[in-house]
Amino acid sequence: MDEQKPTISVGLQGVYITETKICKVDGNVGRLYYRGYAIDALAKNSNYEEVAYLLIYGNLPKAAELEAFRQQLKEERDLPDFITDIIAKNAEKADPMDILRTCVSALSMSDSYAADQSEAANFKKAIRLISKISSIVATIGRCRDGGDYVEPNKSLGHTENFIYMLKGRDPTPQELKPVEMMYILQAEHSSNASTFSTLVTGSTLADIYSAVTAGIATLKGPLHGGADEEALRMMYAIGDPSNTEQYIEDALAGKKKIMGFGHRVYKAYDPRAKIIKEYLLSIQNNSSDEVAGLTEIALRAEKLMVDKLGQSRGIWPNVDFFAGPVYRSAGIEIELFTPLFAASRIAGWCAHMIEYWRDNKLIRPLEYYTGGLDLNYIPIANR
Ligand SMILES: CC(C)(COP(=O)(O)OP(=O)(O)OC[C@H]1O[C@@H](n2cnc3c(N)ncnc32)[C@H](O)[C@@H]1OP(=O)(O)O)[C@@H](O)C(=O)NCCC(=O)NCCS
Questions:
Q1: CATH topology of domain 18-222+333-357
Q2: Which atom of ligand 1 is nearest to the CA of 318?
């Protein structure tokens, strides 16, 4: 008798895979919480180091705890020679996400704790990864511009040092503020594709480097981490702000997706997009011609998309839409956007991995088979 066809949740849409205390995305009303704290409050009052601590350890640190955490991050900032070699040899021609993925995978080989699965070792590895991924991304950016590895500056904070290693000088406030904001906003987002990928790999009890490498590989795609790059490329393709409406109308008529809009979970305005938009508006009168033009295009595209697809289809701007102009205001090149997303999201990936391992269960879903059965095997010469 035929097996009854099960209900299939294509793309695991609507499927809960675990309980968590790390993140709540309330997609119906557009609210986001890290460990119970609203993203708006964190973006306004906190900093990346504190947010990373919060995600990983579960509570806001006291002053001495934050200082110790900062110190541990600083001590891990240097990159081994074999990592700077990979970057220097490939930065000018390879995709930065491929370099980052390779470097993170390679990092495990210089960690004597790599295979130690104790929670204490995993906290250590998480700090190592949070610290070193920022150094790797900065060095990729620097070498892409023809520069050399800049030794980290241990007197600086985490994001300050990122810009220092990228540009070879202290950051300006106009560079630091948007980078810090994006680090906070992208640090965590529940069981999105890259975090799920991280969990799938870690659920086999593979080590955290393997799990994070899988997360980075998943983040690369334009439906996930690559969307901010694609959204900015679209703005460049639009060119003159007066072309915006026609461009979007034509794209929609051609059934093309507009990158930076829509979300699997948010059916309301993404709260991160609101924060980024507010920031863009706050710098609008003092920005470069490039950023001013991009901002105008972004605002016109947003208005049209919201009018057409917001209430009616639940397709709103997501975190990626306004990110491009904001990164450009800090002088960050487009190819570094997704690596920077990883440099921030590493805190969320590690927090989830550590939480999941406390009650680990191999992740192994099912597929409903629709092919033939018991076919006659025909020898190759007779096919
Ligand atoms: C994020 C995303 C993959 C989530 O999509 P999903 O839940 O799988 O939904 P689907 O891609 O199946 O889209 C559902 C419908 O909305 C439409 N839609 C979704 N996002 C759209 C967008 N950005 N522009 C235009 N239409 C969009 C789809 O065309 C589809 O329409 P249809 O029902 O007429 O075929 C999707 O919105 C998307 O591709 N967005 C652009 C990429 C992006 O910004 N990603 C970053 C996410 S943070």
A1: Citrate Synthase; domain 1 (1.10.580)
A2: 48
> First vs last Cα of the chain: how many Å apart?
31
- Where are the CATH 1.10.230.10 domain residues in the chain? 227-329
263: Cβ below 6 Å to ligand 1? Answer: yes
Q: Report whether pLDDT(2) > 80.
A: no
Which CATH number is 227-329's, of 3.30.360.10, 1.10.230.10, 1.10.600.10, 1.20.950.20? 1.10.230.10
pLDDT at 222: 87
Tens of pLDDT, residue by residue over 93-140, are 999 999 999 999 999 999 988 889 999 999 999 999 999 999 999 999
Give the distance between the most distant pair of CA atoms in the chain. 76
- Of all protein residues, the one whose alpha carbon is nearest to atom 19 of ligand 1 is 262
For ligand 1, say whether the CB of 8 is within 6 Å of any of its atoms: no
Give the predicted TM-score (pTM) of the model. Answer: 0.95
Q: Where are the alpha helices (DSSP H) in 14-118?
A: 39-45, 48-57, 63-75, 81-90, 96-107
Torsion sign, CA atoms 314, 315, 320, 326: negative
H helices of the chain, where? Answer: 39-45, 48-57, 63-75, 81-90, 96-107, 119-144, 158-167, 173-185, 193-202, 208-219, 227-238, 244-253, 271-283, 289-305, 311-313, 323-329, 337-357
Positions marked active-site: 224, 263, 320
Judge contact between 41 and 173, C-beta under 8 A. Answer: no
DSSP 332: -
